Each structure stands twice: as structure tokens, then as C-alpha cells.
Amino acid sequence: MGFLTALRGDDQRVLKWASGGRREALTGLKLHGRSFRGVDLKGADLTGADLTEASLDEAQLSGTKLVSANLANAKLRKAGARDADFTSADLTCADLGDAYLFGARFRDTNLAGARLPSANLAGADFSNANLHGAYLSGANLAGANLHGADLRDARLEHVHLEGADLTGTGVTPQKLMRRGSELVPCAECGGDGWWTDERTGVTHRCHVCGTRGKVRTGRTTEEPVAFWDDTTKWDAS
């Protein structure tokens, strides 16, 4: 019995499609928890499919239609999904780390708690998307449309926002500045500074000799946690 024949129902339809079989619509399929790692689904129509907790790591999804699909807790790490359409999909707590999502559409999509570290999201459309608590550190959002998106508690460290539209998000350049204590020489070894404890924010440990102490100078420094330029759009202050 062949591999495809041994599979049942919706799984068989997906893999038959991927292997070059009849290009039928794959809308509304029930694929909860299934693994399609590395499968080529470029241009497939998976509108309304149930892909909760499914594994699509390294899958080829360029131009794939996932409108209103349920991808909650799904894994799409390193997936290639240029111009894919996730409009109104549920990607709650999904993992899209290092995914290539250039020009993808996430309009009205629920990405609350999703992980997108180092994902390429340049030119993507996140208008009115829910990114509450999403982890976007290191992502490329250059030229992305984030108008009206919910970015409360989102992690935006080292994110590229050049040319992005952040109007209606409440995010401002000032909110992307980090304050820290000025470094001072260590009293024990004369080392050139003290580290900041990540839990407390107190600058208190010498990175040369490890001496600990609560050292504050009374002065603080400010530096941006993300990258933007004159073409980035913000709410009017």
C-alpha cells in the first residue's frame, strides 16, 4: 500500500495536492496537530482550515491562502510564506520564528502572544491586527503597515521599522527608548563599567571582576531599542 493511500481523508488530500496531484481547493480541512514540515503548499487555498497545533516548519507557503484559518499554537518556524494571506486567521501563540513573510497579509488577524523573532515581515500588512504580547524581537518590519494594530506589551527590541506605518498603534519613538544607569568604574579593580541586572534593572555587577554592589550615578542614558528613519509614520504628537 502506497504512502498516500495509507493516509486518511484530509491528510491525504493535502499531501496529494503537494505532490502535484489535482489542484483542488483545500478549504475547511481538519488538520489539528498534523505535521507538514517542509511540505510545498505554494498557492494552496486553505481558507478556514483547522491547523491548530499543526507543524508547518520550513513549509513552502508562498501565495498560500489561509484566510480565517485556525493556526493557534501552530509552528511555522523558517516557513517560506511570501505574499501569503492570513487575513482574519487565528495565530494565537503561534511560532513563526525566522519565517520569511515578505508582503504577507495579516489584516484583522489574531497574533496575540505569537512568536515572530527574526522573522522577515518587510512590507507585510498588519492593519488592525492583534499583536498584544507578541514577541517580535529582531524582526524586519520595514515598510510594513501596522495601522491600528494592537501592540500592547509587544516585544520590539532590535526591530526594523524603517518606512513602517505605526499610526493608530500608540507606539511613539519615545516609547521605544530605553533608560539605563550610567556606567562607572569598579571600586575594586577599576574596570570600565558595571552590568545591569536583567531582573531588577539595577546596575550592580562589574563585568571584569564580578564584584557586586548597588551603584547608581544619579544620571541615566537613553538609547533606542528599535530602528526607524524619517519615513516611519507615527501618531501625531
- How many domains, as an integer? 2
Strand content: 5-15%
Oligomer description: single chain
Category by helix and strand content: little secondary structure
Shape: elongated
In the CATH hierarchy, the third-tier topology of the largest domain is known as Pectate Lyase C-like
**Gross CATH architecture of the largest domain:** 3 Solenoid
Helix content: under 10%
Query: What's the arrangement of strands in the largest beta sheet?
Result: 1-4
> What's the gyration radius in Å?
22 Å
Query: Largest beta sheet, briefly?
Result: 2 strands, antiparallel
Mean pLDDT reading: 86
The CATH class designation of the largest domain is: Mainly Beta
How many distinct helices? 2
Which ranges are low-confidence, i.e. pLDDT below 50, for 5 or more consecutive residues? 1-7
N-to-C span: 67 Å
H/E order of the elements?
HHEEEE
Could you characterize what this model shows?
- By secondary structure, the protein is largely without helices or strands.
- It folds into 2 domains: 25-178 and 224-237, Pectate Lyase C-like, CATH 2.160.20; 183-216.
- The chain has 2 helices and 4 strands; from the N terminus they run H-H-E-E-E-E.
- It has helices at residues 3-6, 9-18, and strands spanning 177-181, 194-196, 203-206, 220-224.
- The strands form 2 sheets. Strands 1-4 form a two-stranded antiparallel sheet.
- It starts with a helix and ends in a 13-residue tail after the last strand.
- Mean pLDDT is 86; it is low at 1-7.
